[in-house]
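Researcher: Please predict.
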Amino acid sequence: MNPWLVFSVVAGYFLLLIFISYLTSRKSDTASFFNGNKKSPWYLVAFGMIGASLSGVTFISVPGWVGSSGFSYFQIVLGYLVGYFAIATVLLPLYYKLNLVSIYKYLAERFGNVSHKTGSAFFLLSRIIGASFRLFLVAGVLQLAFFNAFHIPFVVTVIVTIFLIWIYTFRSGIKTIVWTDTLQTTFMILAVVVSVVAIAKSLNLNFSGIIDTIKVNKQYSQMFFWDFADKHFFVKDFIAGAFIAFVMTGLDQDMMQKNLTCKTLKESQKNVLSLSVILIPVNLLFLSLGVLLYVYANQSGIAIPEASDDLFPMLALNYFGTFAGITFLIGIIAAAFSSADSALTALTTSFSVDFMKLDIEKNDKNTKKVKTLVHLGVSATVVAVILIFKAINNDSVISQIFKVAGYTYGPLLGLFIFGLTTKLKIRDKLVPLIAILSPILSYFIAFLIEKHTSYKFGFELLVMNGALTFLGLLIISYWKREKSYNL
C-alpha cells in the first residue's frame, strides 16, 4: 500500500479523534478525566465497550483461530453471559454503593491499605505490559506501512503513536474515551463487514450463499465440542468464558471505569447486560469472516500463512482492493487504540487515586498538575516497555511476557472472591506475599502436570491461581484469629 495513502488515512483518523476530544473537553474539570462526571449514556458506553473488549490482537486472531479450532471460541462467548450477569448483580452494586473511582479501593475498605495497594499494583503491572504489547504490534504495522519508507526509526514511531493518544486523552480522559470508543468500535465492525463483502463479491455469494458456505465448511464452523477429552470441551470453555468476563472486565479498572461513568447503578447494569448480548452477534461476525478467509484463500490458490494471525492482514492488504485495505488498516488501529487509550487513562486513574491519594473532586492547579504528570509518566513507561520489546526482538519471548502478565489477574480474583464470600479478617501485611506466591505456584503446578501428563492448561489456570490466593488468604485469616486469641 502506498505510504502516503497510509499516512493520509492515519492522520485523518487521528484528526477525527482530536476533534472529538475538543468537543468533549469543553467545560471539563478534573472529575471529567476520572469518572466523566457520571453523565455517560449507558447505551453509548455499551457500544463503545465492544471495541475495548476486542483488542488489536483479538481483531486479527479470532478469524485466524477458525483454521484450528472452528467456532469453539463461541462457547467462551456464551460463558461471558454468566460472567457479565455476575458483574451486573454483584460487583456493580458494590462499586456504586462505595462510590468508587478506583475499584481497588474496595480492598482497602475490606482488608486494609496494603491489600488495596497490592491489588492496584497487580493491575498496573498487567495493564502496562498488555497495553505495551498491543501497541508494539500496531507500531510494527505502521513502521512497515509508512515509517520505513522514509527511514524513520522505530523509536520515533512509538513516541509519535503514544503522543497522539496522549493529545486526545490528557484533558478529559474517560469522558472523551466513552465517545472515541464508539467511533473505534464502528470502524472495527466496518472493517470486518467490508472484508466479508469483498470476499462474497469475489466468490459470487449473496447473503444466503455466505450462510451456506459457512455451514458446508464444517471443519471451520463446528461450534460445539462435547468430547470430554477435547481441549475445546464445551463445559470447560463455557466456565472459562464466565471467569474471563468476571475477572478481565469486572475486576479490571480499565473496563470498569467506563461502566462507572454511567449516571446510576441501574443504567450501568443495563450497559453491562446489553454488552453481553451484543458481543454474541459481533463475535459470530468475526468467526464467520474467519471461515470465508480460509475458503477464499483455498479457492484462490493462496498459501495459508504459517501463523494464523497473519491470514486476515495478508488478504485484506493485498487481495481485497484498496478500499478494503484502508478499512482494515483503520480497523486494526481502532482496535488497538480503543484498548490503549482507555488503558493509559485507567493506569493514570489507578496510580493517582490508589497511590497518590488524589482527590478528584478538587479542580485546583495542584490536582490538575499531579494528574497531568502521572498521565505523562504512564505514557513514558509504556514507551519504554515497547522499546524493551523491540530490543528483545523475539516474538516467542514477548508472547510469554504477555502471558505471564495474565497471571496477575489470579490474585485479584482470589482477593475479591474472598472479600465477597467471607467475613473473615486477614493479616493485611501478608497479602503481597500471598499475591506473589500464588502465580508462582500456579506456574509450577501447571508445568509439572503438563510435563507428566497429556493435559494442557488453558484459561482454567486463572481459576487455579485465584483458588490458591483464596487458600492463602484463608490461612492468614486463621493466623489473624490465633494472634487475636493469644492476645
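Model: The chain has a mean pLDDT of 87.
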